[in-house]
Amino acid sequence: MIRGKIIMLPFCLELDGYTVIGAFNLSLDDWPSVIFDLDEERLPARIEELSPEGLWREAESVKCSVSGSGLRVVVSKPLEVMSMTILTLWWKE
User: Fold this and answer.
1) 28 vs 1, residue with greater confidence
2) What are residue 29's phi and psi, to 5 degrees?
3) Residue whose C-alpha is closest to residue 25's, from 80, 86, 88
4) DSSP letters of 69-83?
5) Pick the CATH number of 8-90 from 2.40.10.220, 3.40.50.360, 2.60.40.1180, 1.10.287.620
6) Where are the beta strands (DSSP E) in the chain?
7) Contact yes or no for 40/67 (Cβ under 8 A)
8) What is the pLDDT of residues 26-55, one digit of tens each?
9) pLDDT at position 93, please?
């Protein structure tokens, strides 16, 4: 689930040892942040972000927390109109 009254295209791909999550901003406004709520009860060991150049790098401005309702991943930087954010959550080092 992605929070907010927004027009978006979310995705989640679960693979062995990691999960790829992301969202495309299809609305007419920038988003101040993106919040993903996942059905997961653990924190990732590492988080990578796909850069605009198409390279994976250590994610900045991303915070995770676990509660009774699962894992919350907060990307606390703006997501511009018609752009995307894609993260890889690595479960094991």
Assistant:
1) 28
2) -130, 150
3) 80
4) TEEEEEE-S-B-TT-
5) 2.60.40.1180
6) 8-15, 18-25, 34-38, 46-50, 56-58, 62-67, 70-75, 84-90
7) no
8) 988 898 999 999 999 999 999 999 998 999
9) 63
